[in-house]
Description:
This protein is α/β, with parallel strands linked by helices and 516 residues long. The protein folds into three domains: 272 residues, Alpha-Beta Barrel (TIM Barrel); 31 residues, no CATH class; 111 residues, Alpha-isopropylmalate synthase LeuA, regulatory domain (Double Stranded RNA Binding Domain). It has 17 helices and 14 strands. An eight-stranded parallel β-barrel has the order 1-2-3-4-5-6-7-8, surrounded by seven helices. The structure holds 3-methyl-2-oxobutanoic acid (KIV) and zinc ion (ZN). 3-methyl-2-oxobutanoic acid (KIV) binds next to strand 5 and strand 6.
Amino acid sequence: MTNANTDRVFIFDTTLRDGEQSPGCSMNLEEKLRIALLLEEMGVDIIEAGFPIASNGDFEAVNEIAKVVRGSTVAGLARAARGDIERCAEAVAPAPRRRIHTFISTSPLHMKFKLQKEPDQVLEAITASVSLARNFTDDVEWSAEDGSRTEPDFLCRAVELAIRAGATTINIPDTVGYAVPDEYGNIFRMLKERVPGADRVIFSVHCHNDLGLAVANSLAGVAGGARQIECTINGIGERAGNTALEEVVMALRVRGDRMPYDSRIRSELITRASRTLSATIGFPVQPNKAIVGANAFAHESGIHQDGMLKHAGTYEIMTPESVGLNKSTLVLGKHSGRHAFRAKLKDLGYELGDNALNDAFARFKALADRKKDVYDDDLIALVDDEIGHANDRIRFVSLAVMAGSRGPQSATLELEIDGELKRVSTLGNGPVDAVFNAVKALAPHEAMLKLYQVHAVTEGTDAQAEVTVRLEELGKSVNGQGADADTLVASAKAYLHALNKLFTKREKTAPAALSA
Ligand code: KIV
Ligand code: ZN
């Protein structure tokens, strides 16, 4: 790694760790691998792949990612405990570039109430944990949890010990999103000025968005001397989330005049990463979200449109193309062949295997038959809906619904459960209720429906519907997403997506218990 005085800023993505641990954002192994490979392709410097001690699933995900990712450093998280660090070392071992990221709280509040440790015990734990981690790799990151609320003298002492024990990256998280920019930036100035050895390490920012300041604080940290930014795609993460990768990267790129730091991220892949993550976790992006929201490059008012026609720079500070957003164009018609279809998908950033391509092509033909114009966004929704379902235990087969004002509304649903075809007809208070009752009848479960949301992928009454469903069971929530030209089919698919995730989570559920 370069030293801390250069203008290179390292991007440390924690979508698969801090992001994944937030409600509704959990991913299975296949999904985590897909996101990790996409992060690698984007040029992310360090991928934090998980918290190996947390569960066997987390260990396996970090370990598998460490086996396939070659272009980025793979990091795992570990508390300041021997068991955590050894498990983390084992998980990241296959990676050519591997990092152990160990942390302990340093604020008075956390030390007293969370850790119930004296400050001296915390200092001892820092030396012990970092030294142990260094036995496994030369690349050790140490974090001062709740660092922004830590007494300055104690923080300096803690950082000094971590550096002396061999830490190469020092991260000062704003764990609870409490800091304001000048205060946060000054922490790094202080550490660089006061701590012996500070010139030998990379300082890192890790900000939460509780006051909506995560990106501003991260940039202030960089101005104060930090050269690593910890962030997540779409800003997902605990509570209000983490610093959004796309925002901080584009802020540095667009305002290089004021912030001359280079992140080396391939920003043209940002839109694809955002959409892939959103479809994977079933977490829609708010329309006015900076950089990746549906409205981020839309110009509605006449005055703005007029200005844009005269010169794009009047109302656009970056091009849509710079973040990989190509204006949604009319793509293929129902006469288009498989070749053109494959080429178009490649253009949009998807390379499907033969089976997935055949399935997607069949769905595209069906869609083109029903919908006059098929746009890029239709294809993206269709393919996102197609991929990642290889290991689903419950598969959608067909649905017929009776709806309308005369009632009663009913649904006849066919599902394949663990390879067996099942069929049921049910009534409901409205068509959606009837569909969900049918799913419940075929795959009994106690999960509660917490969210049901529909949005149109493109304009017009023939637009595909993209439905998000959130289910909650025993305090754990999962999101599912489904897309189809028929809103009720999309609803059934979204419900099944969430249910499949829930069943994967319940590691020991007997297959027979799934079906009625
Ligand atoms: O927010 C935080 O403090 C963290 C640390 C574990 C790095 O996520
Ligand atoms: Zn965090």
